[in-house]
Each structure stands twice: as C-alpha cells, then as structure tokens.
Automatic annotation (TrEMBL):
Source organism, top-level taxon: Bacteria
Domain NIPSNAP: 3-105
Organism: Paraburkholderia humisilvae
SUPFAM superfamilies with a match to the protein in the record: Dimeric alpha+beta barrel
InterPro entries: Dimeric_a/b-barrel, NIPSNAP
This protein's name: NIPSNAP domain-containing protein
Gene3D superfamilies: 3.30.70.100
Native organism taxonomy: Bacteria, Pseudomonadati, Pseudomonadota, Betaproteobacteria, Burkholderiales
Signal peptide: none
Length: 108
C-alpha cells in the first residue's frame, strides 16, 4: 500500500471554493476512476489556515499513474475545474508526498 498526501495551498479566501469543488465535483470523478480517499483535513493550527490536506490510498505507483492520469485528462473534469476558477484561481501551489507504512504502523 502507498498513501499519497496532497496539500493544496489556497489563495487567501479561496479555501471555501476548493472545499465546494471537492464536495460537488471532484469526489464524483474520484468515484468514477476508483480513486479511494482516506480523509480530508483543514489546518487548525499551523503556518497557514488556507490549506486543505488529503490522503489517497493506492496499491502501487502503477495504479496511481493509470487512475490519476485518466482523471486529470477527463475533459469534463477539465471543463468543470476551469469553470470554478473563471473568476480567480483557487490553488496557489500543491505539495505532494508518497508515503509507505512502517512495519509497526496501524495502517498498512
């Protein structure tokens, strides 16, 4: 198992727009492509409260490449994402980490 941790650093005031996009658009595409989320979090205490962190579970990097590339190239997704940013950008930058559990991890 591989866990992908993604941190979306939003433009000031745009975190609600990102959350709305996930709830109403993105999660439907995740379901369509079999992308399995572990969870989503916002930052309560830290350097910025304009961030959304989420984790996705993959069986392998090959699975990730196939499913993520299909999702990212979906023309309906591209159109809907662009519409959510027509007024102004939502995400300033994305951090991406691929994690593997240790032998003593509760989640493996």
């Amino acid at each position: 198992m591989i866990v992908e941790m993604r941190i979306y650093h939003c433009a000031p005031g745009r975190l609600p727009a990102l959350q709305d996009r996930f709830v109403n658009i993105t999660l439907g595409f995740f379901e369509k492509y079999g992308i399995k989320q572990i969870g989503f979090w916002t930052t309560l205490v830290g350097p910025s409260n304009h961030a959304l962190t989420y984790m996705i579970k993959w069986e392998s990097l090959a699975e990730r490449e196939t499913k993520w590339n299909a999702f990212q190239s979906d023309q309906e997704w591209i159109t809907k994402r662009a519409a959510t940013e027509a007024e102004k950008p939502i995400v300033e930058r994305i951090e991406n980490h691929f994690l593997t559990p240790t032998a003593f991890s509760a989640l493996r």
